[in-house]
Design brief:
Helix content is 21%, strand content 38%. It starts with a helix and ends with a strand. It is globular and about 80 Å long. It is of the alpha+beta class and 527 residues long. The chain has two domains: 153 residues, no CATH class; 365 residues, Porin (Beta Barrel), CATH 2.40.160.10. The strands form two sheets. Strands 3-4-5-7-8-9-10-11-12-13-14-15-16-17-18-19 form a 16-stranded antiparallel beta barrel. The protein is built from ten helices and 19 strands.
């Protein structure tokens, strides 16, 4: 460490303890400020970046400590020419006043709940004391006072390891068309609705490399299958629990060595929490596709959300192998027969994700699912009829295969899509069915401003292309298609507005059904 910095920090550390000792009363603070003013007639100004402090070497550990304090809390005081005047005798009180101001500001932020102090910053404060232990030893109780103040910072935060992230959706939605896509011949319910969804993610880390995610959720976004007669009309962000707050997701992610990551979930952990959807601009429910189908491959990347385990293993910088086993939320805590962790509905599988270049991401996905009688849903609620229940609502197993990919073409255009295939088998009799689906999408970036996205999605929801066995209910002669157009407008870093619409042709794979249009304006607030 340079002689200038040693002189600077040695004096500063002693002064810090002295300042702490004097900070107990208003009279002592007044006397301290008077002393500081008497040392120099130079004006003192706020330093906005430690890079302005020309006598602090970036190679010294103190550089990082000062940088964090200055840039995180804006509270170190210096001179207008960008130095701490290390070439002249430095007043211990000058530096102590600045660092003491940081401590006071941190305390105020904690008490008001306006900010979280990182463990790294607290460690830096402790290291300043330890680095100059010999110099500070003469201060005795004054060092104890400093330790007490740091302990206050550690003990009085909401949590040194938990971060709160929030998302609020306001939604204006309407479905339009003639008759519902069912056999009743009723008209579509075409009322305009206004709804909301709120999510609060509490992400807790115990080591700096792990994460315990607890999600609180409430909402009243209606599912549009009853209004339209088809689940293809469902929104990508729907869900109505009457705006009652509930824990919708609870899982723990942790490192295993330097290449692997493990997952243990108790509530609502999904395949997409472990596998990659390879659909960067439309996968998110809050900021992606407006339609449920447009978010990700329904045959391989949806299934029994619930409790289970998973892993990611980095084979190299380009290849990642992932695996998962999940039991359905509705079965996993039920001790009765045909329920529990292993005897109810489940999904297990593996994915190999690889990036041949920095702009191309590909994934090969396989899952095996078992869906017990009474809860069969092979299409993951993206369509009704045969793709959802090719043998009725009776126990069904399925082997699902998917190819997903994304290609960033240049700097402002992204292409993505998937193909999914399911081989379904009837567990209680003789029946097999082949089910296919696919989709492509395009995202044009920064249209009309930075951060805006113009998006288009087109695809075929699941369709039974062939079926055999006496218990198979048949195959689809016609084909459904979905087309979505949206424009995501970034108002600022925390607010986006996405108007758009999607059109369903031949709903439920029946060309006798009328075309259905769903329009939506989704406003997202994130914090």
């Amino acid at each position: 460490m340079s002689k200038t910095v040693r002189t600077f920090l040695s004096g500063a550390s002693v002064a810090l303890g002295a300042t702490v000792a004097f900070s107990g009363t208003a009279q002592a603070n007044t006397e301290l400020l008077d002393q500081i003013n008497s040392y120099s007639q130079d004006d003192i100004a706020q330093v906005n970046s430690v890079f302005q402090l020309s006598d602090v070497s970036p190679s010294d550990w103190a550089f990082d400590a000062l940088r964090n304090l200055v840039e995180n809390y804006n509270c170190i005081v210096g001179y207008p020419d960008g130095t701490f005047r290390g070439s002249r005798p430095l007043s211990r009180y000058e530096f102590a006043a600045g660092l003491n101001a940081c401590l006071q500001q941190i305390e105020r932020m904690i008490q008001s709940g306006t900010s979280e102090v990182t463990p790294e910053d607290l460690a830096a404060l402790r290291r300043l004391v330890n680095e100059f232990e010999a110099e500070l030893a003469t201060l005795g109780a004054r060092v104890d006072d400093l330790e007490g103040r740091v302990e206050f910072l550690e003990d009085n935060q909401f949590s040194t390891t938990t971060k709160l992230g929030g998302e609020v959706l306001f939604n204006l939605v309407g479905a339009f068309g003639e008759e519902k896509a069912d056999s009743d011949g009723e008209d579509i319910d075409d009322q305009i609705t206004f709804s909301n969804r709120v999510r609060l993610n509490l992400d807790t880390s115990f080591t700096g490399r792990d994460r315990l995610r607890t999600r609180l959720e409430a909402g009243n976004v209606a599912e549009l299958n009853d209004a339209t007669g088809t689940r293809t009309a469902r929104l990508g962000f729907d869900g109505d629990n009457g705006n009652d707050v509930e824990i919708s997701k609870l899982y723990y992610r942790f490192p295993v060595g330097s290449r692997a990551r493990g997952y243990v979930g108790a509530i609502g952990m999904g395949i997409d929490d472990v596998f990659t959807a390879t659909n960067p601009y439309f996968e998110s429910s809050g900021d992606g596709a407006l339609s449920r189908f447009g978010r990700r491959n329904p045959l391989t990347l949806r299934g029994s959300d619930g409790a289970g385990v998973g892993f990611n293993y980095n084979l190299s910088d380009r290849f990642t192998l992932s695996g998962i086993y999940l039991a359905d939320d509705g079965d996993v805590n039920n001790p009765e027969e045909k329920n529990g962790l292993f005897n109810g509905s489940y999904v297990t599988g593996a994915q190999l994700a690889f990036s041949p270049t920095d702009k191309i991401d590909l994934a090969l996905t396989y899952t095996n699912t078992y869906q017990k009688s009474g809860s069969v849903n092979l299409s993951a609620s993206t369509i009704d009829g045969l793709p959802r229940r090719p043998f009725g609502n009776e126990a069904t197993t399925a082997n699902n295969f998917g190819i997903e990919g994304s290609w960033m073409v240049g700097s402002r255009f992204n292409l993505a899509g998937w193909v999914g295939y399911t081989k379904a088998d009837f567990e209680l009799g003789d029946g097999e069915a082949d089910i296919w689906n696919w989709a492509v999408n395009a995202a044009l970036l920064d249209v009309g401003g930075d951060g805006n996205v113009l998006g288009f999605i087109f695809g075929q929801p699941p369709k039974v292309t062939s079926a055999s066995g006496v218990d198979a209910l048949g195959e689809n002669d016609d084909t459904s298609y979905l087309a979505e157009l949206q424009y995501r407008y970034k108002l600022n870093d925390n607010i986006t507005i996405t108007p758009g619409a999607y059109v369903i042709f031949n709903p439920n794979n029946n060309d006798n059904n009328d075309t259905i249009v769903v329009g939506a304006i989704r406003t997202r607030f994130s914090f």
